Amino acid sequence: MKALCWHGTNDVRVDNVPDPKLLNPRDAIIEVTRTAICGSDLHLVNGFFPTMKEGDILGHEFMGRIVDKGVGVKNLNIGDRVVVPFTIACGTCSFCARGQTSFCDNSNPNAWMADTFCGHGGSGLFGYSHLTGGYSGGQAQYVRVPFADVGALVVPENLDDEQVLFLSDILPTGYMAAENCRIQKGDIVAVWGCGPVGLLTMLSARLLGAERIIAIDRFPERLEKAKTFCSAETINYSDAGVVELINQMTGGRGPDACIDAVGMEAHAHGIQGVYDNVKQHLRLQTDRSSALREAIYVCRKGGVVSIPGVYSGLLDKFPLGIAFNKGLEFKMGQTHVHRYMKPLLDLIARGDIDPSFVISHRMALSDAPKAYEIFKHKQDQCVKVVLDPAA
Amino acid sequence: MTLGYRAEPNVNSYERIASSLAGLALITDAVRRRNLTAVVEGAIGLGLLSRGATGSCQLYQALGVSTAEKASATPIGFHCTVSLNKPIDEVFRAWCSYDMFPSFMTYVNEVEKESDVSEWSVDTGLGFSIKWDAVADVDEKEKIIAWQVVDEEALVQHEGTVYFVEAPGDRGTEIHVHGNYQVIGGAWVAKLGEFLHLGPKRLINEDLRRFKQMMETDEIATTHGELSERRVAKDYETTASSRSQIEDSAGLGVL
Questions:
Q1: Which tens digits make up the pLDDT trace of A213-238?
Q2: Strand positions, DSSP E, A77-219
Q3: With CB atoms counted within 10 Å of each terminal CB, which end of chain A scores lower, N or C?
Q4: Which tops the pLDDT comparison, A198 or B154?
Q5: How far is CA B40 from the centre of its chain?
Q6: Residue B107: its pLDDT value, please?
Q7: Cβ–Cβ under 8 Å, residues A52 and A6
Q8: Do A10 and B220 make contact, defined as CB atoms within 8 angstroms?
Q9: Alpha-carbon distance B255 to B245, whole Å?
Q10: pLDDT score, position B255
Q11: Contact between A20 and B220 using a beta-carbon 8 Å cutoff
């Protein structure tokens, strides 16, 4: 089968590789009909994430039809059309039982590695390095899905792939990030990053009752999507002083919740940007966090800073003093996708939301390397690329 | 039991490992070079290897120096633990089934029980297996299992207890394995083993993790056999026309 494989920093190629096989009784094999490239895939491609091996298949946002299943999968049938969460969860460990599926104890065969790195490692993930298990990802024609009886969600035939694909990752991610803000009546929420996760976070914040949404980015097409689809008030940080503007927009109080949908490869103009880039290049810090610093500075006293953006290691000059003095609450983490999928699918089925507005490019899997290039450099007004493995 | 010489060890374990490795390196190099200086090098290498292997250094003896640990026959202890989201009775009963052991104790080839004694065959991962006979005392009420190797010829001597307690709140069960072991050849062999991640602490913790997976999910998570596990060169070919190099833009052009 064809698959998008990692070959080194900035080197991904579509290779001909053997089809996946069933390895455990609760496995299923999915024929992928649609898959997407995530912003966090770029951290792997840019060489910022450890334990990648040449030949690893990338991709953790995918859906398709079940073509084979193990004897332990009793609740699904061959031919079912399913969306698969990017976090792999067993369903029965104490964390899964509480709905915290991204903390699953049992789904990472390299748990000893993750435990050494983190103290206590989280769940296995699709296509996200050997630290998370070395599972082959979904930017391919077929994928092996472990614990399919817990993971794969059957979706109605009358909904398009593009409407439901993002239940695999970015829609639940945006929703959990917004839910973590404990939004109350009258709240103003500021979101750094108008990429796909930022946009779906804003959409979710609206659903959860935010009074106003402030969106910060530097790419006009992304700010435009935030304005059009999320009714956000936008700030282009290349043109304006973000902190001052936000204070003006919030009557001097600061936003009630600040969301960092940017993560470890944050971009900044000026000295801060140079400093972070140099330190990262010299490997004196692994993560760049200019968006997060700004969010901490401008957030109101006692507010919430919610972080769906991915961080991997250590960052420098983190203003813990400011956070302490303002009594900020931090919420973060990999998404517990499973618990949000069904409720969000219901909203999509009822026509209340349609996350497909984030898609800007539709390409064939064979053109995936080019797709990565466009997505990485934000060329051609790229926001989100969806790939078709059959094309 | 020491190998070879009768002298008391006066070199400590880590130094013995370093000395043996250095000696081997010099000998290998000398054999490769095969000239006059190589003979001298080889002799030094042999000396280093010999003091590493026996733990006895004549130079140290002459100087009256000893770097050896006291009582090198002290067993090495370990404590391993895991928590399971299952009731304590179920966990204890499952553990007491000997024949299940090889399914989650990866290095155990088989366990056979004959009356009170169980015979174990364990793969060292170095190309050979070792065997031992052990007895266990099971306290069903307190849920404690005490084991002990009863085979004097066994290369590894060990004993310990496995006990089961209810985790606080509704967190299920904790399993604790306390033990100690001695390896023939002395402390330095054991230390080398620990260094190479072959020590019981690491292996038992992994076994406990697999036992938890089996109890909670009926399977053991694996990617063994997925593409990422296979050697790259043998298994796939690149379609050259679909290859594209992405330019590295992570330079300092941030403005």
A1: 999 999 999 999 999 999 999 999 99
A2: 81-84, 87-88, 124-125, 142-145, 153-154, 188-192, 212-217
A3: C
A4: A198
A5: 36
A6: 85
A7: yes
A8: no
A9: 24
A10: 24
A11: no
CB-based contact A53 B250, cutoff 8 Å = no
Distance CA A343, CA A134 (A): 30
Residue in chain A lying closest to B84 (CA) = A93
**B contact test, residue of A16, A48, A93, A265 with most B CBs within 10 A:** A93
- CB A213, CB A232: distance < 8 Å: yes
Task: Give me the helix-helix angle, A242-249 and A290-298, nearest 10°.
Answer: 30
Structural tokens at position B37: 């200086």
Q: What confidence score (pLDDT) does residue B236 get?
A: 35
Dihedral over Cα of B17, B22, B25, B27: its sign: negative
Q: How far does A372 lie from chain B, in Å, by closest CA?
A: 8
Q: Copy the structure tokens of residue B137.
A: 């005392």
CB-based contact, A54 to chain B, within 8 Å = yes
CA distance B242 to chain A (A): 6
> How high is the mean pLDDT of chain B?
80
Global pTM value? 0.83
Task: Tell me which chain B residues have a C-beta less than 8 angstroms from the C-beta of A366.
Answer: 239, 242
Digit-coded pLDDT (tens) for A288-315: 788 999 999 999 999 999 999 988 888 8
| Closest chain A residue to the Cα of B214, Cα to Cα | A106
> What's the pLDDT at A361?
97
Among chain A residues, the shortest Cα distance to B223 is held by A135
Asked if pLDDT for residue B248 goes beyond 50, the answer is: no
Nearest to A370 among B212, B244, B254 (CB): B244
Interface contact B229-A134, CB threshold 8 A = yes
One-letter amino acid for residue A114 of the chain? A
pLDDT of residue B65: 74
Instruction: Using the Cα atoms of residue B161, residue B164, residue B167 and residue B168 in order, give the sign of their dihedral.
Output: negative
Nearest CA to A153 out of A169, A177, A173, A135 is that of A169
- Touching check for B61 and chain A: CB below 8 Å? no
Q: What is the mean pLDDT of chain A?
A: 95
- Retrieve residue B11's tokens: 């070199």
pLDDT tens readout for residues A251-284: 999 999 999 999 887 788 888 888 888 887 777 7
- pLDDT-above-90 percentage for chain B: 33
Interface of B with A in 67-126 (CB under 8 A): 83, 85
* Chain A residues with CB-CB distance to B222 below 8 A: 23-24, 109
